[in-house]
Amino acid sequence: MPVPDDFTLPTLGVNIDHVATLRQARRTVEPDPIAAAVLAELGGADGITVHLREDRRHIQERDVRLLRQMVRTHLNLEMAATPDMVTLACDLRPAYVTLVPERREEVTTEGGLDVAAQVEALTQVVETLQDQRIPVSLFIDPHPVQVKAAAQTGAQWIELHTGRYADARDEAGRRTELSHLETACYLAREAGLRVNAGHGLTYWNVLPVAQMAGMEELNIGHSIISRAVLVGLERAVREMKQAMRGTL
Ligand code: PXP
After folding, report:
1. Which residues does 213 contact at the CB level (< 8 Å), separation at least 6?
2. Which residues contact ligand 1 via a Cβ below 6 A?
3. What is the pLDDT of residue 118?
4. What domains appear along the chain, each with residue ranges and CATH number?
């Protein structure tokens, strides 16, 4: 893929939920996601991302409060668009909030928010948070209808769901999914939205998304934490930055 002249590498938000998952497996105090955030930043993370789920299955409120004090880069809080979570976010004051759909029985976030089906309700949530100077990002599938609806809500950002791209089984499928991401990214920028992406990105599939014009931040969790178990978190983060540059 040709790299445009004005290309700048997107920043890397490291999602540390899986560190908390390991801790919660034993309901103990280790490994501590706060330590993981510090090491991720030492490895070159540009941001730290956590998903505070309503069932608190991995990240806890205590983690977000401490991360808010410890993180030297920026803290992205993923959450459901519920009144309780909005109240909590206004108290916790992350650098920005990413609104995601949440189903209790899911293993991980399964799809983007259907913004088009709930423009009014999401507009209210976006307004409440952004009135508190907490910018909002909407996690959506790379579909023009969702991009248009996201712009209508007044959100400053979108995060494009890269799951279908990551799950594509062959080169043709990957190319198709990549073109959906490119189109959605272009349309979003035209509509004045800033664009992030994430879900299912790995050391092997990240490069074309990292090279997409207008892409600002990639949020990556599972692949980095999986590698970190074997090589350490600092090195795993450093190697993901290399993969994004195409120098791994
Ligand atoms: N972005 C969002 C909105 C997510 O919900 C997740 C998963 O928690 C990620 C990015 C990171 O996905 P992965 O762990 O597959 O890298």
Report:
1. 4, 6, 7, 182, 185, 186
2. 15, 17, 51, 78, 98, 100, 108-109, 139, 159, 198-201, 219-223
3. 96
4. 11-245 (3.20.20.70)
